[in-house]
Amino acid sequence: MRHVRSISELGRDRILGLLNLADRMAEINSRPVPKVPALRGRTVVSLFYEDSTRTRLSFETAARRLSADTMNFSVSSSSVNKGESLRDTVETITDMGVDAFVVRHKSAGVPWQIAQWTTAAVINAGDGAHQHPTQALLDAYTITRSRNSQDLAGLRVAIVGDIRHSRVARSNVEAFTALGAEVLLVAPPTLLPPVVSHWPVEVVHDFDSVVDSVDVLYMLRLQAERMNQGLVPSLAEYSTHYGLTPRRVARMSVDAQVMHPGPMNRGVEMVVDPAEIRGSLIHRQVTNGVAVRMAVLFDSLAVEPDHSALREEAR
Ligand code: CP
Fold first, then answer.
1. What residues contact residue 302 under an 8 Å CB cut-off, 6+ apart?
2. What DSSP state is assigned to residue 271?
3. What is the pLDDT of residue 77?
4. CA-CA to 160 of 20 to 30 Å: which in 92, 125, 207, 279?
């Protein structure tokens, strides 16, 4: 069992291996019957203590396309509501016979705790503001494959917005720099982490000073639930300074690309309609999420190291 809990735990070689494996999975997804028996007999449980659309559905789709059995845990209808602890929940599900936990939780570090309580592989689907490694993998995959490249060497990527609360930003900084990109963080001081001096990035407060010189603009969701902390004066002011407006899109390089992990706030960080951005990769991010999560599940759970199970369609 191989855990996938953070980008730093993976390192560059395993990241590159997973991106190459995702190419195999994308080929399977292009078949008339996108299903192989690679994980037949394996069971994957989705343990989501926070809401999700993309991550949860793409992991479940990925597991089924590899013929794994899936179990779905819903906090709202579980014994968590009777006071059952996270540890007891994990040990109970482990006793049923599962091979992987795909876990999302509001607290940083939960995937590491769970790994102490189960023999199954633990895959981090987002822990607090800490890590979202499969989002970073699918983002790296989307950029590299859109440019027929294996890594991000020579690219200048700006991550724009609410860095402070963003597990996507933390994972993407690690993944993008591991693959050779130059990364800029574009945000007001209030939406940066308290200390970023040790991050391998350049910090910029004036979005307009860099919008015409980057290869990729990675827009982050402004986490509106934080607004009562007074971190931005108003949504309108935030949009004016850090939103992607038609005027800013017009200033981007012709080959520049725009990404967003979703869910997006239209009219806040995405003032322009994404459908009108020629270089938008937003739909491709979602599509690639299935192939990348298939690669992660296969890499963590497959018995056959020669990948022969990927060749045969499931019957
Ligand atoms: N990008 C992302 O994690 O989206 P969900 O919250 O919908 O899974």
1. 38, 39, 309
2. -
3. 86
4. 125
Best mutation site among 50, 55, 285 for ligand 1 pocket (most ligand atoms within 8 Å of CB)? 55
One fold for both 7-130+286-311 and 133-281? Answer: yes
150 lines ligand 1 (CB under 6 A): no
Quick one: pLDDT at residue 313?
Answer: 66
Position 310 scores a pLDDT of 79
Residue carrying structure tokens 């979202």: 132
Q: Whose C-alpha lies nearest to ligand 1, atom 1?
A: 261
Choose among 294, 286, 258, 295: nearest CA to 53: 286
Where are the extended beta strands (E) located within 128-285? 156-160, 182-186, 202-204, 216-219, 257-259
Query: Each residue of 281-300: pLDDT tens digit?
Result: 999 999 999 999 999 999 99
Q: Which residues of the chain have pLDDT under 70?
A: 1, 225-228, 304-306, 312-315
- Pocket lining: 55 vs ligand 1, CB cutoff 6 Å: yes
Domain boundaries, the chain: 7-130+286-311, 133-281
Give the Å distance between the CA of 315 and the centre of ligand 1: 32
Q: Is the CB of 52 under 6 A from ligand 1?
A: yes
Kindly give the distance from the C-alpha atom of residue 101 to the centroid of ligand 1, in angstroms, as a whole number: 17
Ligand 1 geometric centre to CA of 222 (Å):
14
Closest CA to 168 of 207, 211, 230, 124: 124
pLDDT of residue 303: 79
- What is the CATH code of the structural domain delimited by 7-130+286-311? 3.40.50.1370
Residue with the two structure tokens 């991106």: 19
Tell me, which fold does domain 133-281 have in CATH?
Rossmann fold (3.40.50)
Q: Is 184 helix (H, G, I), strand (E, B) or coil?
A: strand
Q: CA torsion sign, 29 to 30 to 33 to 36? A: negative
Residue 152 identity (one-letter amino acid): L
- How far does residue 54's CA lie from ligand 1's centre (Å)? 5
Q: What angle do CA 138, 10, 96 make, to 5 degrees?
A: 85
User: What's the 77 CA to ligand 1 centre distance in angstroms?
Assistant: 21
